[in-house]
Amino acid sequence: MDPSRAFVKNAKRVIIKVGTAVVTRANGGLALGRLGSLCEQVKELMSAGLEVILVTSGAVGIGRQRLRYQRLINSSFVDLQKPQVELDGKPCAAVGQSGLMALYDSLFSQLDVASSQLLVTDNEFKDPEFRRQLNHTVTSLLELRVVPIFNENDAVSTRKAPYEDATGIFWDNDSLAALLALELRADLLILLSDVDGLYSGPPSDPRSKLIHTYVKEKHDETITFGDKSRVGRGGMTAKVKAACHAAEAGIPVVITSGFAADGALRVLQGEHLGTLFHKDAHLWFSVKEHNARQMAVNARDASRRLQVLSSSDRRKILLDVADALEANEELIRRENESDVCVAKETRIADALVSRLTLKPGKIAGLAKSVRVLADMNDPIGEVLERTELADGLILEKTTSPLGVLLIIFESRPDALVQIASLAIRSGNGLLLKGGKEATRSNAILHKIITEALPKSVGSELIGLVNSRDEIPDLLKLDDVIDLVIPRGSNKLVSEIKESTKIPVLGHADGVCHVYVDKAADLDMAERIVLDAKTDYPAACNAMETLLVHEAVMKTGGLDKLVLALQAAGVRLYGGLKAADRLTLPKASSFHHEYSSMACTVEIVKDVLGAIDHIHEHGSAHTDCIITEDRDVAEVFLRQVDSAAVFHNASTRFCDGARFGLGAEVGISTSRIHARGPVGVEGLLTTRWLLRGNGQVVDGDHGVKFTHKEVPIDCRKKASRMLDAANGAVYALSSGTLEGFSNGINLKTG
Q: At what angle do helices 329-345 and 439-451 cross, to 10 degrees?
């Protein structure tokens, strides 16, 4: 159940208002299927002990269709050639009401439910005695398990323009439903419409977003309403007005689709359905939702300011971050120790505690990796291709930041430093959500890094998300956030992929294999296997399964490897073959990431058997072969379909820093965009720059295409030109063309 909908558990009396667009089909005929489904839902709610009151529209629409048909069959051919005068709504209402109620009575009778008709006008509500009697009658009907069905008696309404007038006690069936909700002290009002709820703009506009919880202070001035309903009077504007009126008086309201077969039931089950109006909504969502979007927008704006800085200025930011980390090492260590202490007290798994702990030398190592990033070639604006399309028309393909990244990671505070430094180097905005077990470590690291950012960029470049409750709101922001990178458990990654339209980059598991071939150097194999498992067991690139050629078992090599692992404190589990032959407990699954001092051992026939095992049970992360047979090694390297495949080297080498990337935001097992350790290049996209001197297409007659490849200038010259351009942008934005950081004076060239 959605926490914001928990109040429905206590709802006893519910009013359901059915719009004309729900009652009728597009051609004006009755939507029998939808009405039948509604009656079945009412029956089910009543069986669950709820009191249900219906407010229905549709009488005018049904009557108009009947009267048009009546007029058609009674008209001569000459009459049909004349302009047809639109039928007055009052006789339409009188004719349609009886047919509508007959239908409701028939449908409910099939379900052994009695229904009743109550026609009201707004003038009647001015009479206190009428209101008292109305309450008494409805209460009696509900006690008798009868469904009261209300409709405005349009046939005798005294208003001059009952379909336009918005004055009086109520002015349409939406406002009637809201009025009845107050008069009859309902616990919930459901307004069934022909759309899923209230959108930020016309539902037909792909840019419009469904608003799950309406906050008047936030949405009142920002919503753009489309055309009113094809039938009925007010459309969504009237529904919102009625919903606000009821909600302000303390009656929760949900606007949702009446086209769904079980919409009302799902609302009463507390599902995140439609748009909720609640008097306390501003306390639940206004700050949170505003903060989520504003944080993302601020990060995007700051990233654009970062991109216009010169390469040397961006490099200096990273060097300042590295210096700040080292200067505050003691403070970082104290905060991290507090997190570790709490984690141990709450009995968090040892593997998570290991990832959480910033071991001695870790801060120095992080500072070093930041400096490595600073000394790398500037990745922004690099020309990858240059083509002459026509004489004087030059096209360039250049590198460009992705935009705003949302990184969700568990346990490892060192990841925050790596990710933040990569974002700065690649010119991206960044939103970070770390695990709650690292709250203090993440907070101090974020503070140190953002304080090192210059005011010209702003600390908003890197936002720290403090509450897990904000994640669902951030995952909705596909118009602001460009990429989500989850670093954590299979469950975390899977949940995020299912919850967002934003592209997701990451890996769910790190089930890494080491295969020891029959031609392996066993001393080398022992070193690699021990390192791959014991160097950092909690890492995603640690060995989880040891595969051994059956010939190695026959020569005693497998026994040697098993003894070495057991002597190092590794718990071993056997596959189908190894469990029996080595007397090991059977592994529960081959696809298992222990993240601890444990691993699975299995025996395979040959290298092809190892490859098949990896493809069936692996996670496409990192896999290794140990052999002196280069032909066998090449088979393994070419055929294993993993992000990283090694020969005679530990799986622990699969790391951004060890690959020379400076740092990594994570390791991707995806096959689109980036794969393996994701460094700066994985956070870039490309864009096209076209420089001409007045060329036009003119049906492809305006130019003579040449499509010649043009040599790319040396990197230093290109970098200096880019710095000049960026410096000019910065100088213009700051109001001066002189003295900007790269030292080039545009006035003198």
A: 160
**Pairing mode, if any, of strands 275-277 and 383-390?**
unpaired
Q: Which two tokens stand for residue 183?
A: 């008069």
Structure token pair of residue 445: 């690291």
The pLDDT of residue 385: 93
- Measured in Å, how far apart are the chain's first and last C-alpha atoms? 65
Judged by DSSP in three states, 290 sits in helix
Partners of 624 in the β-ladder: 514, 646
d(CA 387, CA 385): 7
Which residues does the chain have with pLDDT short of 50?
161-167, 227-234, 286-290, 714-722, 724-725, 727-749
Please name the helix (run of DSSP H) or strand (run of DSSP E) that holds residue 263, with its range, or none.
helix 263-268
Residues in CB range of 208: below 8 A, 6 or more apart: 199, 200, 201, 202
CA torsion sign, 390 to 391 to 392 to 398? positive
DSSP 581-644: HHT-PBPS-SS----SSEEEEEEESSHHHHHHHHHHH--SSEEEEE-S-HHHHHHHHHH--SSE
The structure's pTM equals 0.58
Residue 133 CB partners (closer than 8 Å, separation 6+): none
How far apart are alpha carbons 50 and 43 in whole angstroms?
A: 10
Q: Coil, helix or strand for 355? A: helix
pLDDT for position 410 = 76
- Contacts of residues 554-559 at CB distance under 8 Å and 24 or more positions apart, as own/partner, are 557/516, 557/520, 557/522, 557/525, 558/516, 558/582, 558/601, 558/603
Nearest alpha carbon to residue 426 among 391, 377, 362, 460: 377
| Beta pairing, strands 512-516 & 483-487 | unpaired
Query: How many whole angstroms separate alpha carbon 116 and alpha carbon 137?
Result: 11
pLDDT at residue number 233: 42
Q: In the structure encoding, which two tokens stand for residue 704, read together?
A: 């003579």
d(CA 505, CA 664): 13
Task: Give the per-residue pLDDT at 743.
Answer: 34
Distance from C-alpha of 168 to C-alpha of 502, rounded to nearest angstrom? 47
Pull the structure tokens for residue 540: 């995603």
DSSP H helical segments within 669-741, as ranges?
Answer: 715-734
The predicted pLDDT at position 288 comes to: 47
3-state class (DSSP) for residue 520 = coil
Phi–psi pair at 747, nearest 5 degrees: -70, -30
Judge whether 59 and 98 are in contact, CB under 8 Å: no
Q: In this predicted structure, what is the pLDDT of residue 518?
A: 96
Judge contact between 374 and 318, C-beta under 8 A. yes
